[in-house]
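User: Is it possible to get a 3D structure for a protein together with its bound compound? The compound here is ISE. I've pasted both below.
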Amino acid sequence: MANNLRIAVIGTGRMGTDHIKRLTHRIAGADVTGVVDIDAGRARSAAVLAGDQAKIWDDPHAALASGEYDAFVLTTPGMLHYDVLMDALGRRLPVFCEKPLTADGPTAREIVDAEAEIGRRLIQVGFMRRFDAGYRRLRAFFEDGSLGAPLMLHCRHRNPDPPPNFTDALMIYDSVVHEMDGVRYFTGEEITEISVRRGRTTTGGDGKLSDPQQVLMRTESDVLVDVEIFVNALFGYQVHTEAVFERGIVDIGNDEGAYIRSAGRWGGEVTPGFEQRFAAAFDAEFQGWVNRLRAGAAPDGPSAWDGYAAAVCCEAGVAAQQTGAATAVYLGDKPALYRA
Ligand code: ISE
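Assistant: Yes, that's possible. Here is the predicted structure of the complex:
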């Protein structure tokens, strides 16, 4: 195997620091040797997390141009992704890009077209659920057909509380985006139509969100999907999926772990948040990405096309939220690079 990958992490907020810790302590074959943030204090703390071996930058383009890194992890807010990705593509540098790929469908399409023009995959998008053991197990039933054709997916996505300044649109862009990618991952099909229903709102939040909401989707072969997105669920974190096939039902995402009987009660622990629920998935996602790059191979995780498709689905979802009408999803041609 080649030397350890020299990685620069661009953006050292919540996800950036989580990934620095992961790459530094749990992933083999990679060193975080650079951190980039316009906030100098945050960058310094991030460098310490990387074992104090990381060079600090305030400009991502300078880090990209330096020639000091083999790969980049991009965890800035989504609206800053486009310029960094375009620069990295121009330099043929691999980037692991946390979702979203970019801020909107048209710019995401530009990234797809630019990468397709190069003819080699350089970008992997951080849809970590694809690396969750339960997700993989469920997908196998879609692939092997042992339970017959898939008919429906019932998804529940519950958060204890939303991030600060969350909006109805972010419930789609930041949360339901994972189910959109999940549906595409399980079925291997594109989503063709999305509707959103709002109902009674919980008194458990600050009253600014319409929460919970129901997002309904249809795929190319007419698999129907319903998603409950509930971001002030208070009790803890839950991502649960039930798939209905012609000859069986498969459900994943029930809390696992010890089942305790004590003091006249029975039960176990509820997962507190997505970092815990998907910790193993995040690790598997990064280990796979590092292994591929070290072997000189292109990344094989979620692609720029997957990021683009998710962006277009989110836009349709937000339009459906605003109009109350079923909204069609139109992706246009899929370049050969993504038609493996
Ligand atoms: C957050 O950004 C995530 O990606 C989590 O997986 C999701 O559950 C949560 O709703 C989002 O806010």
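The CA atoms of residues 194 and 217 lie 5 Å apart. The domain at 130-277+310-338 is CATH 3.30.360.10 (Dihydrodipicolinate Reductase; domain 2).
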